């Protein structure tokens, strides 16, 4: 058994965790359960303890999204690297400063790189800063040429190869679906309301405002009882307020509900009663909320930035050009009106979602470690 150093953004207890954090944490806890010794470095939210022992591993929280990696490098890296046999690192994740351990750590690396972030940077920070960050990401790739890279879809693998990473070092590691969520995946008695649901973090690059415009179009098409729930974890409070203001300006605020920091139980409740899940971001490494929705028999309308692995065209939902409001509203109107087509997609979605176990995710990581002699 090996001593594995995880360099991550957030652990499972962090109130602002995102999908990539869940992947990293579940992989770490799975490897700890295998018998590996795991130290898990991540950021610390106010009120959280600096160190914990959880799920068989040591969790060490230092700094916030912007200071965790510098503080790790300056005060914790020497002891941590001396202790470690290998590093498992989330290279680029969310808004945080990357660890860049490929620069200073001469150890075997397994790296999670969920997607090429060029479109995300441009949408979140604007074209100028987005271009700078995109070039920075390409430069970072050169530090990890000898690492085994884990990404979440074939589409992301293709994009990472285009960015300069070696295709023969990249493995597709699809995330699994939580068993507890699956246990709740039964529809509510009495059918479903014409409810559209969005689940994710309140980040500008997600383009959540598009879902409010879609709802307005549905009302214009005569589906006046359609409503929208935007649910997830708060991050950009100003953006959340802008979404509420947009709903008021478009005259649909009565039909839009925003819920912050929802629990897994509330997520399950929303998905049991929803008719459709919408994903409007220009790119997703995978789009795990699509598979979660599928488990509840909820078809997905997504952009082409969501991989085909997650939304199977015409079977579990539809992928539409990013920003094409008319196309998304048209599909939504059809699925809200046609019980036969909706039911077919719903049944296919529920069947597909059962094929995403976490054991397969862990097996891919185990195989990567073996390739590195760990």
Short key terms for the protein model shown above:
globular; 374 residues; 8-stranded mixed β-sheet; Rossmann fold; 2 domains; 14 strands; 6-stranded parallel β-sheet; 14 helices; alpha/beta; 17% strand
Shape category: globular
CATH architecture of the largest domain: 3-Layer(aba) Sandwich
| Oligomer state of the chains in this structure | single chain
- Report, as a whole number of angstroms, the end-to-end distance: 8 Å
Structure classification: alpha/beta
CATH class of the largest domain: Alpha Beta
Strand % is 15-25%
Q: Report the average pLDDT across residues.
A: 90
Give the total of domains: 2
The CATH H-level superfamily of the largest domain is: Glycogen Phosphorylase B
The major β-sheet equals:
8 strands, mixed
Overall number of strands? 14
Order of helices and strands: EHEEEHEHEHHEHEHEHEHEHEHEEHHH
Outline the low-pLDDT stretches: none
What is the number of helical segments per DSSP (H or I, 4+ residues)? 14
Q: What is the helical fraction, as a range of percent?
A: 40-55%
Could you tell me the radius of gyration in angstroms? 21 Å
Q: Looking across the biggest beta sheet, what order are the strands in?
A: 3-4-2-1-5-6-7-8
Can you tell me about this structure?
The protein folds into two domains: 3-176 and 357-371, Rossmann fold (3-Layer(aba) Sandwich), CATH 3.40.50; 179-353, Rossmann fold. 43% of the residues lie in helices and 17% in strands. The protein contains 14 helices and 14 strands. The chain has helices at 19-34, 68-83, 101-104, 118-125, 127-141, 154-163, 179-183, 209-220, 237-249, 264-273, 288-295, 325-337, 339-353, 358-371; strands spanning 3-7, 37-42, 51-54, 57-61, 86-90, 109-112, 148-151, 170-172, 195-199, 227-232, 256-260, 276-279, 300-303, 317-320. It has an eight-stranded mixed sheet with strand order 3-4-2-1-5-6-7-8, sandwiched between helices. It has a six-stranded parallel sheet with strand order 11-10-9-12-13-14, sandwiched between helices. Helix 3 (101-104) links the parallel strand 5 (86-90) and strand 6. Helix 4 packs antiparallel against helix 5. The relative contact order is 0.12. The model has no long low-confidence stretch (mean pLDDT 90).
């Amino acid at each position: 058994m090996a001593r594995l150093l995880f360099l991550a953004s957030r652990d499972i207890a962090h109130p602002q965790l995102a999908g990539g954090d869940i992947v990293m944490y579940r992989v770490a806890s799975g490897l700890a359960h295998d018998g590996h010794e795991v130290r898990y470095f991540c950021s610390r939210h106010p009120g959280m303890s600096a160190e914990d022992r959880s799920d068989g591993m040591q969790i060490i929280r230092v700094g916030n999204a912007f200071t965790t990696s510098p503080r790790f490098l300056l005060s914790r890296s020497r002891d941590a690297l001396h202790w470690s046999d290998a590093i498992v690192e989330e290279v680029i994740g969310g808004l945080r400063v990357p660890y860049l351990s490929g620069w200073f750590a001469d150890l075997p690396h397994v790296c999670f790189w969920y997607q090429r972030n060029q479109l995300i940077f441009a949408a979140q920070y604007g074209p100028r800063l987005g271009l700078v960050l995109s070039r920075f990401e390409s430069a970072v790739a050169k530090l990890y040429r000898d690492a085994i890279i884990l990404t979440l879809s074939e589409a992301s693998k293709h994009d990472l190869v285009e960015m300069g990473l070696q295709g023969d070092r990249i493995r597709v590691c699809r995330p699994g679906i939580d068993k507890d969520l699956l246990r709740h995946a039964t529809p509510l008695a009495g059918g479903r309301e014409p409810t559209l649901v969005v689940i994710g973090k309140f980040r500008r690059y997600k383009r959540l405002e598009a879902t409010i415009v879609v709802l307005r179009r549905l009302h214009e098409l005569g589906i006046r009882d359609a409503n929208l729930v935007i649910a997830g974890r708060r991050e950009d409070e100003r953006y959340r307020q802008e979404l509420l203001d947009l709903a008021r300006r478009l005259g649909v605020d009565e039909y839009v509900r925003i819920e912050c920091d929802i629990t897994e139980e509330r997520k399950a409740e929303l998905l049991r009663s929803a008719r459709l899940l919408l994903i409007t971001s220009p790119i997703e490494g995978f789009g795990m909320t699509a598979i979660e929705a599928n488990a509840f028999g909820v078809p997905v309308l997504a952009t082409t930035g969501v991989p085909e692995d997650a939304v199977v065209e015409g079977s579990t939902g539809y992928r539409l050009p990013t920003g094409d409001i008319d196309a998304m509203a048209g599909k939504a109107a059809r699925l809200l009106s046609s019980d036969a087509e909706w039911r077919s997609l719903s049944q296919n979605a529920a069947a597909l979602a059962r094929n995403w176990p976490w054991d397969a995710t862990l097996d891919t990581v185990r195989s990567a470690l073996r390739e590195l002699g760990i």
